[in-house]
Amino acid sequence: MNKSLTCVIIFLSLFLVSCAEDEGWNASDVCPEAGTNRYGMPNRGTFVDERDGREYKYTTIGDQVWMAENLKYELPYPYSMCYGQMTCKEEWWGDTTCTRDTAYLAEIAQKMQSACTDNDCIAKEYCETFGRYYSLMENGGQMGLLDRGVVDSVCPNGWHVPTKDDWDLLLENVDGETSVLKSANVEYFEREKHVGTDECAFNSIPVGDLYTSGSFFRFFSEKNSYWTQTQMNTINALTVDIEYPTAEYSYGHYKNAIRCVKN
Fold it and tell me: Residue 164 burial (CB < 10 Å; 0-12/13-18/19+)?
């Protein structure tokens, strides 16, 4: 074999190897655990919400920094609630109506591997572990305009409720592979094939969403619905549903989880 042909073969081999390495999505490039992000923070770590002293995990994905767990900051009912806890509201005729859904607490306790033996304990642990459910609409309702005062203040200082553009960028950064955002804990999922790899340490757990009454609209182990602060029309704002195998936008008619992103 002549020298020129040998050089061409070596060049082509190196080119093909390089192309093969460039194909596909790589967590070490997009959301590496080591190193620092654009803010000078470690790529993964914790921070404290000064308002209530709660500590949250965060993760860096591309140039974005996201909370790696759901928000737990307490707003008064009906702007936030926890599953399994009593919710009361004053009716238009003057009476106060209280409701409490505990139907799934025993199953949730099993999924959390909780040591709790009563519903009050399970509900409290659930809220502290998986966060609260929120309405961002005016008067805490199911439809209408976003309450901008709530939207602008619900996240910790220096963080905000993500816009649709924020979510679009996140999904673009992971090449639409929602599995890398989803928890790898098989206990949290209804079906094993829905379990994620969580390579980006985003730790999305399918906590579903709630009716205003406090009962599940769609059960704990099937999907997670997160708020955006993007208003689509006079009665609807967007949420993003992270399910199997993709993420989809829908209208936020119920109470949903919040993941804040750094300003």
Answer: middle
Q: Which amino acid, residue 35?
A: G
CB atoms within 10 A of CB 27: 17
Asked whether residue 34 carries a pLDDT value surpassing 80, the answer given is yes
| Nearest residue to 230 via CA among 240, 220, 216, 242 | 240
Q: Is residue 225 within 8 Å of 240, Cβ to Cβ? A: yes
- 246 Cβ contact list (under 8 Å, min separation 6): 176, 178
Task: Please give the model's pTM, rounded to 2 decimal places.
Answer: 0.88
88 pLDDT tier (thresholds 50, 70, 90): confident
Give me the half-sphere count of Cα atoms (radius 13 Å) on the Cβ side of residue 120.
0
Q: Phi and psi of 42, rounded to 5°? A: -55, 145
H or E element, residue 130: helix 119-130
Give the residue among 83, 247, 261 at the shortest CA–CA distance from 159.
261
Tell me, what DSSP letter sits at residue 30? H
Average pLDDT over residues 94-103: 86
Res 40 pLDDT > 90 = yes
Q: Would you say residue 20 has pLDDT above 70?
A: no
The span from the CA of 242 to the CA of 24, in Å, is 21
Range 116-136 average pLDDT: 95
